[in-house]
Known about the structure:
The structure holds 2 protein chains of 2 kinds. In chain A, helix 2 packs antiparallel against helix 3. Chain A is 63% helix and 9% strand. The radius of gyration of chain A is 27 Å and the shape is elongated. Chain A has 24 helices and 10 strands. In chain A, the strands form 3 sheets. Chain A has a 5-stranded mixed beta sheet with strand order 7-6-8-5-9. In chain A, strands 3-10-4 form a 3-stranded antiparallel beta sheet. Chain B is of the alpha/beta class. Chain B has helices at 47-54, 77-82, 99-103, 105-109, 114-127, 132-135, 145-157, 175-192, 203-209, 227-232, 236-245, 247-253; strands spanning 7-18, 21-32, 36-40, 62-67, 70-71, 84-88, 163-167, 195-200, 212-217, 220-225. In chain B, the strands form 2 sheets. Chain B has a 6-stranded mixed beta sheet with strand order 6-7-8-3-9-10, with helices on both faces. Chain B starts with 6 loop residues before the first strand and ends with a helix. The model of chain B has no long low-confidence stretch (mean pLDDT 87). The interface between A and B is medium-sized, with 20 and 31 residues.
Amino acid sequence: MKAIDLLSNRDISEILVRSGEHLVLVAIAMGVAIAIGIPLGITITRYPRLASPILGIANALQTIPSLAIFGFLISVPFLGGIGKNPAIVALTLYALLPLIRNTYIGITSVDPAVREAGKGMGMTDWQLLTQVEIPLASGVILAGIRVATAISVGVATIAAAIGGGGLGVFIFRGLATVDNRLILTGAIPAAAIALGADLALGWVETRLRQQPVRLGKLDRKVTIGGAILALLLVSLIALNYFQTPATITIGSKNFTEQIILGELLAQQIETHTKIKVDRQLNLGGTFICHEAVKAGKIAGYVEYTGTSLTAILKQDPIEDPQVVFDKIKQAYDRQFQLEVMLPLGFENTFAFIIRNEDAKRLQIKTLSEAAKYTPQLRGGFGYEFLERKDGYPAVAKTYGLKFAKIQQMEFGLMYQALKEQKVDLIAANSTDGLIPVLDLVILEDDKKYFPPYQAVPIFNQATLTKYPELRSVINQLAGMISTKDIQNMNYQVDNKSRPVDRVVRAWLKSKNLA
Amino acid sequence: MPQSPEIAVEFRDVSFQINDREILSHLNLTIYQGETIVLLGRSGSGKTTTLKLINHLLMPTTGLVLVDDRSTAKWETIALRRRIGYAIQDIGLFPHFNVAENIGLVPSLEKWHKQRIETRVYEMLNLVGLEPGIFAQRYPHQLSGGQRQRVGVARALAADPPILLMDEPFGALDPITRLELQQQFQYLQTQLGKTVVFVTHDIQEAFVLGTRIGLMYEGDLAVLGTQAELLQSQHPEARAFIDCLNPWQNGENT
């Protein structure tokens, strides 16, 4: 019963759409990978000297983490950027190894006596290849396709990090909002797709294998022809899918507040202009968003002034919000041809957060007071925070913090870890909707270490020149979003599981912007 | 002597090396049209290499191999191979082709008409003593060893090539089936009159099938002649093979 309740809450149509996206990503990538990998595998059977370098390269590609490939692809023209293209490129690269290797092994392990008999009877190399070697290797090649497909279905979930869509969207959203149901909403259909594809290909494989015994030559042709036809069909559907018109693209980073702000920009533009908006919410992080807006792959996203100053411009923190704003506005204009719009109103600063019960027991309210106790506490910090110049190393120095243990963890997992007492103190965002709900408290930054983190929309100047109406529409939002507003919206999405678009629409209405 | 003076294949001072190892050295051999020449010898004596030099699966390191008076190097390889039937031990059948497809291979490569191929396949199956209605649609793994050999021979004969190369085609068979096939092959040969080069390590088989026997030893012909001539040879390798004809008697004598 419970499961049905869950599903009816969840937008079933979105599951279907995301599954469709997922399938399309995998199908296109597999189509491309097969078109490259199998001919390449055949080629290296003819030029054995190429075999080990090509297999070596394919092998090396396989070992590169997918996020690294995505990050690299952003600045690559045509194939790269954000969205579906780089996702397909990455998936294709991952699928190559099993395809090339299995084609190569399948063909080279054809009985040499059979090959020699063919040659001795006067078959040309092409006839030998098409009539003998490929048919005899087809089982092994198909096994390679199965492996590649399974890998692709898995890796495709990460495509969501660069706006490629697919079921990974649920998983990332679920991680960001500590929502296991949401994670499963993505993971279960993904597993089902992987199993389904494997079963289907397994069926084709047994059919091809049993073929000499039970089926005539015609049937083999029907099987292969059917498979090719299906692939073509899926590719066509996919192509169609790509041609949905989108005039500009709004991006966001991969946590709830960012998704809300991205959606907010998008709805504001859609309501007040005729421009169509494509949403690439949930991009991998600050750097991916920055690179994407710089390259014009997205028109704009919402950044925080402090992050721009320290993480992007690599400058030392400054206390005065106005000085920070002026400084980044100038620098963005000069260095990146990006326009920093007016602040939206609230600040989202780094916050050190502990459980309320601990705060009461230890009687601490500020970071200075906490420094006494941190040697007994376990800290949980994100990778980015530990790395950044304005992040952990500097804060620890300022307050003299030392921890019993520091746990590196994914941003989305930190609240869960704090709640379940796996860690005692985390660094997260002051606007997180979970803070009041999980009964947590923010330790005050009493030495004013953190620079101001005002939320500001950042837009590509070329896009603004092309659509001048955008500027005034975005600036209508200036100063409109209070800290309370954003915390509430975060709460609605994170904890009430309300869809982002409805939460945003309700807010726009409340401000008479809708 | 049944042999005609027309020369089908000629080896002129042929040597063949692979990785600096000499497999054949200065081989001279003339094969006449219509004769069955049996190359006899131990493993590694160079019999199979000699065979593969004829259909250009291998190329001589030095010397010339002439087929119909033309060097194999000057032949268009595919055309050369299609006029030479080739039957090898057991495994040469394509496992994914049925019997009819295997036999019809060269005719279909030669783009014969479908009807003509089918007729030819049935003819060949009858010729090697396999009932076409039963065997045409079977796959190699559904056949016994002897049946597979028959299919192999039928396949080699299908496009009616003037020359036939056979590399121990009956090697892996039980003695009774082998004898049966040898007798059938002998009968076939009287009917078809092909030029046959037949490789074996079995002296009995060589005696049954060969017009002439070429005894190979360390990459060269030790003896070349009829059965009678071989029996009289004093070459130690010839004596060693002849001793195999009656090992029991030989054992008692020494």
